[in-house]
Amino acid sequence: ALIGSASRIHGATVAAGRIEAKDVGSLRGMADLFREKVRSGDAVLSSPQKGKMHYVVTVTDDLIERGVTAEGLVAELGALTGGGGGGKKHLAQLGTKDHESEAAVFAALPGILERLMS
Q: From CA 106, how far away is CA 100, in angstroms rounded?
C-alpha cells in the first residue's frame, strides 16, 4: 500500500509510513521487500516497539550510486527526532523515545531527498 501511495522525486519512488510490525526484524523485512519491488527509491518505515519509535530506512542501489545512503538519511533524521542509529548504505535503523516524531520525519524526507539528489 505504501508503494502505491508513494511520491516521486527525480524519478525515484519515495515511500514513508507506519507499519504494523511485531518487532524491528519484521520492519527490516518490509524494507527488504520494498527494495525487491522498486527499481529506484527510498523508504522510511516506522513502528512503535518497546517504548520507542523505530524507523528503518532503505535505499536502492542506484540512489546509493548518486550519493544517497540509508545511514546518511538516518543521521539527518536522527537530528530531527533526538534519536540515534546507524547501519549500512542500503539499510539503516533509527530509534527515538519521541513517539511524536513521525510527522516531522515524514514531512522532512522529501526535502532532504530533493537536496541530496540535486
A: 11
Residue-wise pLDDT for 10-33, tens only, equals 999 999 999 989 999 999 999 999
The amino acid occupying position 52 is K
pLDDT tens readout for residues 77-92: 999 999 999 999 999 9
* 99 φ/ψ angles, rounded to the nearest 5 degrees: -70, -15
pTM of the model: 0.93
**Can you list the pairs that 81-85 forms with residues at least 24 positions away whose Cβ atoms lie under 8 Å?**
81/53, 81/55, 81/105, 83/52, 83/53, 85/55
- Cα(84)–Cα(55) distance, integer angstroms: 10
Residue 21 CA neighbour count, 13 Å, CB half: 22
Hey, which residues does 41 pair with through a beta bridge? 13
